[in-house]
Amino acid sequence: MSKTKLEYIWLDGYVPTQSLRSKTKIVRNFDGKLESCPVWCFDGSSTEQAPGGSSDCLLKPVAIFPDPARKNAFLVMNEVLSPDGTPHPSNGRALIDDDDNDFWFGFEQEYFLWDTETDKPLGFPASGYPAPQGPYYCSVGAKNAFGREIVEEHLDLCIEAGINVEGINSEVATGQWEFQIFSKGAKAAGDQVWVARYLLERTAEKYGIAINWHCKPLGATDWNGSGMHANFSNGLLREAGSKEIYDRVCQSFAPVVKEHIAVYGADNHLRLTGKHETQSIDRFSYGVSDRGASIRIPIATVENGWKGWLEDRRPNSAADPYKVAARIIKTVKTVPEYATSNGH
């Protein structure tokens, strides 16, 4: 009789930023399939998701990945359900309206490796600041790149787990890094970002290093903040062949700036200042190859005859990719050409 470890992963109910939670279930003679993962439960009163007098919440498995860091183990991403089986209010995945996987997402996840002893980014001196930003972006060498062993181990784990990670690089600030995740299907993209975040947190544990997901952990300084740029497309954008259609899609975002900012991560006003390759939080703009715009139209899209994707640069590093994707999809679906392109 074989025994397998299933690491059930979910999001708690903390506001304004949810955290990852997980616990291990031992099962016998497991066949590695998602449908063989049973619904489980947890104490929601300990995660801000239920009162103590009625504390059970349900875990519904929605994605499974091999766990390369443990023997005989899998990583199981879950949606949180209320006891009656309906989506819990904290369940952002349930908001996604993309059952046909028409929407594709690529998330650029930035973060800081954080020294728990100095309470500063890895590579910062105990007092003061390192040399100004500039040499750290895509850097190499011990003077400029910090924590590479953690980042490389995380990359290998993601690849071995079957997560569609598309690349990594060191970022503009000291101790700041990025990984990129792509998937055809908004729910799958969110699943993979969250499991990749989980693997990064767990890997950094071994080194005594924390992961700081906050969008501006160094406060009102000249150091760059952290984003989670959302690259997205659907059938309409991939086959548009028309600048006018791209204009209409981009313009559909203008009336709902507040609705997008509401789910694009806490404290985004500290990051979206109009500086450091951002647009101001209360303004909306778009443009070809413009990294200071709210939405960038990649030059590759234009050169491909206006067939490609868009990049919303506003989501921050601590945003929930499920909620970001759900809001983008809702907005794009208001464009009249969307209904025509999907046969509605």
UniProtKB/TrEMBL annotation:
Residues 87-344 form the GS catalytic domain. It catalyses: L-glutamate + NH4(+) + ATP = L-glutamine + ADP + phosphate + H(+). GO terms for cellular component: cytoplasm. It is found in: Cytoplasm. Its main location: cytoplasm. Gene3D superfamilies: Glutamine synthetase, N-terminal domain, Glutamine synthetase/guanido kinase, catalytic domain. Coiled coil: none annotated. It comes from the Bacteria. GO terms for biological process: glutamine biosynthetic process. One of its GO terms (molecular function) is glutamine synthetase activity. Catalyzes the ATP-dependent biosynthesis of glutamine from glutamate and ammonia. This is Glutamine synthetase. It comes from Ohtaekwangia koreensis. The lineage of its organism: Bacteria, Pseudomonadati, Bacteroidota, Cytophagia, Cytophagales.
